[in-house]
Amino acid sequence: MSADWFRRRFLPRGPLPAPRPPRPRASPVPYRRPRFLRGSGSSSGPADASRRPDARPVRSPVRGRSLPWNAGYAEIINAEKSEFNEDQAACGKLCIRRCEFGVEEDQEWLTLCSEEFLTGHYWALFDGHGGPAAAILAANTLHSCLRRQLEAVVEGMVATQPPMHLSGRCICPSDPQFVEEKGIRTEDLVIGALESAFQECDEVIGRELEASGQVGGCTALVAMSLKGKLYVANAGDSRAILVRRDEVRPLSSEFTPETERQRIQQLAFIYPELLAGEFTRLEFPRRLKGDDLGQKVLFRDHHMSGWSYKCVEKSDLKYPLIHGQGRQARLLGTLAVSRGLGDHQLRVLDTNIQLKPFLLSVPQVTVLNMDQLEPQEEDVVVMATDGLWDVLSNEQVARLVRHFLPGNREDPHRFSELAKMLIRSTQGTDDSPIQEGQVSYDDVSVFVIPLHHQGQGHSSH
Amino acid sequence: MSADWFRRRFLPRGPLPAPRPPRPRASPVPYRRPRFLRGSGSSSGPADASRRPDARPVRSPVRGRSLPWNAGYAEIINAEKSEFNEDQAACGKLCIRRCEFGVEEDQEWLTLCSEEFLTGHYWALFDGHGGPAAAILAANTLHSCLRRQLEAVVEGMVATQPPMHLSGRCICPSDPQFVEEKGIRTEDLVIGALESAFQECDEVIGRELEASGQVGGCTALVAMSLKGKLYVANAGDSRAILVRRDEVRPLSSEFTPETERQRIQQLAFIYPELLAGEFTRLEFPRRLKGDDLGQKVLFRDHHMSGWSYKCVEKSDLKYPLIHGQGRQARLLGTLAVSRGLGDHQLRVLDTNIQLKPFLLSVPQVTVLNMDQLEPQEEDVVVMATDGLWDVLSNEQVARLVRHFLPGNREDPHRFSELAKMLIRSTQGTDDSPIQEGQVSYDDVSVFVIPLHHQGQGHSSH
Predict the structure, then answer these.
(1) pLDDT of A364-421, one tens digit each?
(2) Which of A94-108, A411-425, B42-56, B354-368 has the lowest mean pLDDT?
């Protein structure tokens, strides 16, 4: 992506073109639930959920079907918020083949050895909006993008440190193979591959949705184990935490219009055209009214962490670029998240104002070194879509995990049982440990990944 | 500042105008050392420093002269790196007057009460480059900017929470005076005032330097006590840390081309014109050579935290936007810091490429709640320019502080003695606790601010 591309794509000189009406050239993305839920009862068709949340079924893989690392999974569909469950999940083994550098004359890559070189594991949650299509495409696609991106750099992961040149050979005698000063590590290549994979997947979704005349977007939260490390990549408002006996550690942070206020305001500052004169980029404590004109009111602009006062002008009365607080915060009055995949066609209702330039598909990646961690018997990673975290805090989830696991050591399916129990805790039922009134009507999907005896000792070759 | 202003200022349509030759309309900013060093010996003129670092004098205020909170100060001039000491310091009492809203009809501010309303204290270090002028102007000016910015919002600091409207009155009956959901605190107003003050000071420096035909820039590190809190605002590579008996806490982080790589690369991505075809915004492990053409080498772009490989094109052989590692890292081959004041005229040698669009004057602000901290006898804040931190780690400074203070309880001048001792520790003398070879030839300036019995109980009214 270049600056020119950005300008051509989002800053047309003349009046903005109307959004293209969908001209389906391909069949729509079929709705489905994750493959690993097969046989677990309840149809994969539209929700038949009742409005009474406690009547909604919690689904998890059938007993006997095991997920990577014996991870647990459970999900519940929303209370008719939409017809389909807009959450999607995927997991599996990630087989990275090693490609070796071919004949030098033609500078081409030849797959001299297509054997599996590295093995990783992959768990992913996608929370869709504007329809389930983007989340389904992401669940179908992101792991392939990731495999491809990792294979493109796997040669650089052979040595203890990535070499300056991918061929691993010095191109002139005085040149060291590694550039010590920068301290570039193998994990930096994996982080780079995750970043590239999210972007590639975003492009695929854009093409596929346009071809099938569909719309929508989704968040993406990925955990991937590779060479003794667990990578957590997040774009959106899902969350992963590490729960240990005496530690609760966030492994991701949420990207919403509020948490990314400065980045979003700055883009509107640089390209005011993106707001088409309909929005103000400034933040005020509430939407301003005619009465506020000429008054000095609290405000924040893109470069400010603190607040100041400004005299209200007429342009300040426009609808704010970011409006509302907490769960109600919206970007351009439209979207509750500021990173994710898809949404290429999304515009503000009844306008030509596009959301996409304000959205990032690039994830933030955190790395957990499993060798250093020395995971104990009941150490787990809990990954869940926002429906869980709206109702339960990290500490509440940790208490539930620590309470559940010791009493269920013998059950091979206990991590799915734990995931189901976490979801039931959001449904306001009698045995729920949370306060009355805190009930999630959203889709909720949960992975529980046990860390003990996993991922250490570099499962490569 | 608007986007239009930025484009007009930095993106001229035609060929770039040559830098205007200085046409002095005012006399040059006179060189001086801080007022509070008067009488402490050594002339205030050019450095007569010897090349042997241990022969250079360490200066601190004369015994009997006390700084706010009985803080200590010491400085040493560089070993002929430049003729003048480019560091500057300032400290003092900050008296904030309360202005009350005047007659409503003309909507003007009248100072009904010019009595002091709030009292704070202020300590600041400025590390100049390209001449001492910007640092001297900052030392002369920033506290006035800060007072002015605080007085502009002081009415909002009267209540426990800043009101939506500065007059403190609801403008329509249904409107609550405070906007509870946003949780805006008094300290957010102070942070906003610090941010505005740095920007105002930057503009003053730009005007003054242009008028006097001088050039240069400086970093700025400010500590300010107000209403029971200590605010630390930093733009540049100076550093402040809190040292307690069993805690070392950084109160600032450094802003250099390396720490702000993504912001700087992103600006070059948005406005490639800023690089005038002379630089590449991409980061490589080292500067590329002709031999690298066509090879796949490690690189990072603005949206990447991790690294990936790319095939080298001709444009990648240009000089990198950010080059070098650690202390050698330079922005556009020119500047070692990415935030600060001044540098309005600074261009890359022999080009018209301006540094200013890549520099931020806005500081990052951290807040220390003195009431919650309950400072003990030997708790201090150590503020110093980069000359100290190049040679001593936070932990080494903390060890020196903890070793020095208990044995010197009776000396009223002990915090200046401590500051002098810290500076001597960077000079490679015999009694230095640091390894041989780690010697600072830079200017070094140090404040040591004791926290015990200070700043609590809100010294207002």
Answers:
(1) 999 999 999 999 999 999 999 999 999 999 999 999 999 999 999 999 999 999 999 9
(2) B42-56
Interface contact flag, A156 B326, Cβ < 8 Å: no
Mutation for B interface: A101, A106, A165, most B CBs within 10 A: A165
- CA B283 to CA B309: how far, in whole Å? 11
DSSP code string of B418-448: HHHHHHHTTTT-TT-SSPTT----S-EEEEE
Q: Do A272 and B3 touch (CB under 8 A)?
A: yes
Mutate one of A164, A196, A265, A317 to test the B interface: name it (highest B CB count within 10 A): A164
- Hey, are the CB atoms on B309 and A152 less than 8 Å from each other? yes
Residue B449: which residues within 8 A CB-CB, separation 6 or more?
A: B69, B71, B123, B223, B380, B381, B382, B383, B415
B-chain residues near A272 (CB < 8 A): 3
> Two tokens at A84?
């389909």
- Pick the closest to residue B352 from B6, B1, B7, B11 (CA basis): B11
What is the full DSSP assignment across A303-353? Answer: T-SS-EEEE--GGGGSEESEESSGGG-EETTTBS-SB-EE-TT-B-TTS--
Q: Do A296 and B167 touch (CB under 8 A)?
A: yes
Report the residue of chain A nearest B263, measured CA to CA: A263
- What is the radius of gyration, based on Cα positions, of chain A? 24
Name the average pLDDT for chain B: 88
Identity at A78, one-letter amino acid code: N
> What pLDDT digit, counting tens, does each position of A4-18 carry?
878 888 876 655 556
pLDDT at B458: 46
- Nearest CB to B365; choose among A166, A172, A306: A306
A309 to chain B: which residues are within 8 Å by CB? 152-153, 156, 166
What separation, in Å, do the N-terminal and C-terminal C-alpha atoms of chain B show? 35
Contacts of A270 in chain B (CB under 8 A): 3, 6, 270
* Residues on chain A touching B6 (C-beta within 8 angstroms): 270
Which tens digits make up the pLDDT trace of B132-178? 999 999 999 999 999 999 999 998 998 889 999 987 666 676 777 77
Query: What is d(CA A94, CA A222) in angstroms, rounded to the nearest whole number?
Result: 13
Report yes or no: A123 and A383 within 8 Å, Cβ to Cβ.
yes
Q: How many residue pairs from chains A and B have C-beta atoms closer than 8 A?
A: 152
Inter-chain touch A271–B3, beta carbons under 8 Å: yes
| Alpha-carbon gap, residue B99 to B154, rounded angstroms | 8
The whole-number pLDDT of residue B14 equals: 58
Looking at chain A, which residue has its C-alpha nearest residue B328?
A: A181
Q: Which residue has the tokens 């805006």?
A: B184
Pair of tokens at residue B370? 């003195």
* Alpha-carbon span A26 to A44, nearest angstrom: 22
| pTM of the predicted protein model | 0.90
**Model pLDDT for residues A174-186, shown as the tens digit of each residue:** 777 777 778 899 9
Distance between CA atoms of residues B327 and A170, nearest Å: 27
Structure tokens at A49: 């959920």
Give the lowest-confidence range in A404-413, B3-12, B225-234. B3-12
C-alpha to C-alpha distance for A229 and A211, rounded to whole angstroms? 38
Report d(CA A390, CA A384) in Å as an integer: 11
CB contacts of A184 in chain B (<8 Å) are 285, 298, 307
